[in-house]
């Protein structure tokens, strides 16, 4: 690379379903020479050795051994979100490549998504919207009775940054808050949001009216919520998932929703995404599904790009990465 030339940043595409947003391009171009996967694949040899960084947008491009081998000067991969379960962290590290995520940018907006799903499910917003726009607009009162949120108990499984921000929001909605986390929060943090620690998930499941999943997907959390756990929940309880689809045994969830083991589910994440159009979950009235809305607001996505740039520039300048992720 010539002195003064911008470092080369590989992105999947610009625009489209899996491309970075057009509105982020001017900012990225201030710092990098942008190159898309299509341009890279057309001229692998010449472009490959120029690329020093990758910005992953919604898990794309796929990082595999072949790609890593074709990028001999790659220094860093920045992810446009907090979950890194789509990456083989050990493989990437074995190429001497650093990795970063974007925890600062994502937490408030993802917490908002969780609360939006909780409220929408409690008050059956999708069902009543459909009633409201139907030609007959006919309903009896029982059709629209929801669940009272104030005074209800929310069980948060995963009390990291996002989980904590959900607790902040739930407190404002006058909910009682239980949480489970690998490590207990400090007492003053618990007190600030009025949250009670449950060492055992089972006790949280038995008490909560709403259970919100906010854990990362790891081998330990894969199918964390299965038939047994669903059966521990109250028949009046609602499951909300904003983590990853694979944290729930989806077949068990379908059965639980069909047979009244639990009241309802609100899912921002499924496995796979999107679900096949004939999937049983899409046919249930007591389910709300959103398309991994997570962080998707204009401001939060822009902040993610800013956080990614900050991490990439740190890595390229040999400085500590503000949000480095190490293989466990
Ligand atoms: O940050 C992430 O990994 C998300 O999935 C946000 O929804």
Automatic annotation (TrEMBL):
- Tell me what organism the protein belongs to: Zonotrichia albicollis (White-throated sparrow)
Query: What protein is this chain from?
Result: Glyoxylate reductase/hydroxypyruvate reductase
Which Gene Ontology cellular component terms are annotated? cytosol
**Residue span(s) of domain D-isomer specific 2-hydroxyacid dehydrogenase catalytic:** 23-325
| InterPro entries found in the cross-reference section | D-isomer_2-hydroxyacid_DH (IPR050223), D-isomer_2_OHA_DH_cat_dom (IPR006139), D-isomer_DH_CS1 (IPR029752), D-isomer_DH_NAD-bd (IPR006140), NAD(P)-bd_dom_sf (IPR036291)
Pfam families noted in UniProt? 2-Hacid_dh (PF00389), 2-Hacid_dh_C (PF02826)
Task: Report the superkingdom from the record.
Answer: Eukaryota
Q: Which Gene3D superfamilies match?
A: NAD(P)-binding Rossmann-like Domain
Task: Report the sequence similarity comment from the record.
Answer: Belongs to the D-isomer specific 2-hydroxyacid dehydrogenase family.
A single GO molecular function term of this UniProt record: hydroxypyruvate reductase [NAD(P)H] activity
Q: Where does the D-isomer specific 2-hydroxyacid dehydrogenase NAD-binding domain lie?
A: 115-294
Q: Which UniProt keywords apply?
A: Oxidoreductase
């Amino acid at each position: 690379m010539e002195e003064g030339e911008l470092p080369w940043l590989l992105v999947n595409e610009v625009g489209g379903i899996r491309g970075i947003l057009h509105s982020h391009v001017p900012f990225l171009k201030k710092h990098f020479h942008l190159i898309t996967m299509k341009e890279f694949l057309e001229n692998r040899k010449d472009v490959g050795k120029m690329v020093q960084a990758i910005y992953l947008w919604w898990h794309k491009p796929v990082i595999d051994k072949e790609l890593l081998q074709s990028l001999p000067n790659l220094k860093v991969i920045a992810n446009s979100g907090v979950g890194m379960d789509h990456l083989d962290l050990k493989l990437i590290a074995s190429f001497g490549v650093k990795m970063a995520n974007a925890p600062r940018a994502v937490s408030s907006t993802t917490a908002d998504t969780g609360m939006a799903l909780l409220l929408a499910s409690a008050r059956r917003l999708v069902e009543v919207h459909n009633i409201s726009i139907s030609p007959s607009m006919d309903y009896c009162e029982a059709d629209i009775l929801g669940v009272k949120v104030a005074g209800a108990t929310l069980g948060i499984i995963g009390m990291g940054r996002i989980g904590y921000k959900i607790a902040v929001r739930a407190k404002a909605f006058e909910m009682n808050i239980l949480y489970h986390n690998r490590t207990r929060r400090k007492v003053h943090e618990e007190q600030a949001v009025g949250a009670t620690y449950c060492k055992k998930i089972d006790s949280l499941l038995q008490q909560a009216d709403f259970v919100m999943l906010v854990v990362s997907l790891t081998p330990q959390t894969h199918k964390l919520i299965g038939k047994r756990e669903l059966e521990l929940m109250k028949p009046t309880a609602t499951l909300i998932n904003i983590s990853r689809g694979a944290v729930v045994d989806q077949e068990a969830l379908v059965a639980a929703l069909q047979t009244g083991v639990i009241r309802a589910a609100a899912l921002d994440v499924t496995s796979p995404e999107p679900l096949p159009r004939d999937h049983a979950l899409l046919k249930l009235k007591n389910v709300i599904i959103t398309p991994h809305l997570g962080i998707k607001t204009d401001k939060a996505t822009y902040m993610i790009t800013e956080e990614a740039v900050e991490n990439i520039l740190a890595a390229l300048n040999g400085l500590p990465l503000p949000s480095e992720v190490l293989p466990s």
